[in-house]
Design brief:
Elements: E1 19-35, E2 38-47, E3 50-57, H1 62-70, E4 77-87, E5 90-96, E6 102-106, H2 124-136, H3 141-151, H4 154-162, H5 176-194, H6 200-209, H7 214-217, E7 218-220, E8 224-226, H8 228-232, H9 235-248, H10 255-267, H11 283-307, E9 314-317, E10 321-324
Parallel strand pairs: 3-5
Antiparallel strand pairs: 1-2, 1-4, 2-3, 4-5, 4-6, 7-8, 9-10
Helix pairs in contact: 2-5, 5-6, 5-11, 6-10, 6-11, 9-10, 10-11
Amino acid sequence: MEIKQLKKRFIKDLVVGEEVNDLFSIKYKKPPRRYAGGFMFELRISDRTGQLNLKYWGTGNEETIRKLYDGLKNGDVIRVQGIVCEYKDVMEIGVNAETGDSIVVVQPGSYDIRDFVAISEKDPDQMMSTLNSFIKKVENSFLRTLLSSFFSDESFVEKFKHAPASISIHGNWVGGLLEHTLRVVQICEFQSRLYPNLDRDLLITGAVLHDIGKIGEYQIKTSIEETDDGMLRGHLVIGAEMVSKACNSIPDFPENLKLKICHILLSHHGKPELGSPKIPMFPEAIAVSLADDMDSRIEQYIRTKEEAATEDNWFWSKRLGSIYLR
């Protein structure tokens, strides 16, 4: 049995000036170019805690540099020996061939994928069981059949249980989609008690299905990546298409009900500038949209506060603005 190579230092813990001899995954590559001392290339590398640039400073032998570069692929795990440095106030790793620094590809199976992609701290089977308890309470026979068409499919359930909710914004880990979906459903369940005029079956169905397109938007390798389908269409459109096809396969499924469910998926980002082709147009649609935004934003604030590496009272986030830490 092959012994796995484990990471000793994660990106979030690196400090300028320290020597590095550790594992990272390649996000993307920038081709070799000439510099004063020879030829160099750049990589964007990552682990489960973040990303940073790597600059490989090679010799004047262009063929050697290009051979090394061509042997590296996006998604590869590499062992990097170099120095943490800083360029224009941004931390990066410098790898200098003349001083014996190196980049070596690590073979699949000889590293722990959890070093590169975070995994939910919650039990996926328990979360799935809780989600199913909400699904079983849906009384509308068409909506119950629609949900069953997805969640009685073992292949779909496995993908749903392991999918992330995003690349970096929220739920960016294995199981993140299920974790996020369950919280949105729980928020909507509370809304249905607070506002009894809401159609609970429609609301819960929309909450359960609102992000199913993410199983086609993201893929997990040594990092979370966007698929071509995700890049070109996005999970709102992918999910609405999945739901529309499922509705069409159910005999006598009401057309208006199909339109409502699809509208919830297409409008749940709330505004066109946030990716929604339509804004929410009925109570259950706005309820799902607000629940989705509530869960995403609260999680972002909590994580930013927990991860803020400062003794100041305030932390500024490009996405969220100023956050009070005390």
